[in-house]
Design a protein that fits this description.
114 residues, mainly alpha
């Protein structure tokens, strides 16, 4: 279905051909131009439709690829960033506690020897 601006343009061209035919102008040339423009309009519409199909295919391929990658990552038991950050924070806290306990043991050892 042609869009409204294209339809309006076709009506203007057709009106110009009719006026020229009545005046005795170049009606045959205008009809030939109109036929060529119709062919170009049809090719343009075909290309527009093809681009729409290609866009839809691209979106479908992206969705399929994302699903494939998500399944592959889930099978690999990778951790999320949040889980990694939580474990890192726990390790840092354990390291700090170990340092505090070591300092306390060193202090106890020092008091025993003195």
């Amino acid at each position: 279905m042609p869009s409204m601006p294209l339809l309006g343009l076709r009506c203007q061209r057709l009106a110009a051909v009719r006026v020229d035919a009545h005046i005795g102008g170049k009606a045959d040339m205008e009809k030939t131009m109109q036929t060529r423009n119709k062919i170009m309009d049809d090719i343009s519409q075909l290309m527009t439709n093809a681009m729409g199909v290609a866009h839809g295919a691209r979106e479908e391929a992206e969705t399929a690829m994302k699903g494939l990658i998500d399944r592959w990552l889930a099978d690999r038991d990778f951790v999320t960033r949040e889980e990694f950050d939580a474990v890192r924070a726990m390790a840092q806290k354990a390291r700090e506690e170990n340092e505090a306990l070591k300092a306390r043991l060193d202090a106890m050892d020092a008091s025993k020897t003195s």
